[in-house]
């Protein structure tokens, strides 16, 4: 019925262990589509031309140019279809169902060619260990529709709060976007100063890629569907200022992980809070303040009083 909320609420429960196989397959599918966007878009600072965006039905590339025409690609986690739509009015769909990455890759490339939108991509996944070229990957072949839908709803809730947090900043700040390399939804604030050259080291990702991504001093936060429990909210600074890890942050369950160099907050802490949005905003704000105060950011020039 129109206007009726989903019965499980705005912050759904989804244990990582319950959907890990679907998650890993979907991760590779988003890399296929993300690399199409990478191939078609002009370069932007920090690789902002490559992410996907949360949509009213899933994840989308937004509009992309192609030889005088335009097209977009959207993961629809309500109808469980990949929609490929051309500005000519033509469209193709690829079913989201249990199938291998190699099959998904082949069907997607075929659909693009049928629309006269051929795209050539590098088929090696980025930022993961034990990467398998898309056309050879029969290992990842799981898709549970309800798990995919619940993940999208996690993204919708996180996107809402990250967007509100983004609005508090008048300095340089990224969109709220989904990076398919690490499979996380993120937003990044910048101090306005350049940063030391990043050392790189991400798996299957050239060091110069990371150098571009971290060319300027930043504080980044977001949601990652990994770790124990139901996923993890995170926040980190680059470069990490002195005594950053000792800065007091909220809520009580938030903590600094020396292993990953980030502040972390379990998704279920937010989901089960009396006011989930306010709880997450508190985490985002206090971890940003750790970077801004310890790093000597000019907060009076970067933050809005609205």
UniProtKB/TrEMBL annotation:
InterPro entries linked: DUF5996 (IPR046038)
Pfam families reported in the protein's UniProt record: DUF5996
Name the record gives this protein: Ava_C0101 and related proteins
